[in-house]
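This protein record is not my work; I was only asked to verify it. Where you disagree with what is written, explain briefly why. This is what I was given:
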Amino acid sequence: LALVELTLDETTQVRFIHIYNRVDCCSDRLEGAKVSLLSHDENTVVERNIGPLQQKMVLDFSDNRYLAKKVRIWIPEGGSGILSLAEVEVYGYSGATSAPTTSNSPTTSISRSKMPTNSP
């Protein structure tokens, strides 16, 4: 199972995830990938398909109050078996009991992970 997993500093109400695809090569390796939000006890809170491949993909989780401790990006069995991406940004509200601000779009970057792009 090919996957990338981010552990957030604390339980977070995830609102948006930005996934940056590789531009140097291998951008098709995210084909069929899924994103799962996991609770502190590793249960899946919600799962989404990444969707059409682009240089930057935005996954919107603002339709509900999804609390997560981890973000997993993975390729299901039967896929290419190779996961390759450039960067992941997770936006949301930290703290399981924190109330969101009145802003329509979250501005707090909770986690940012940069993947090496110089390897195939």
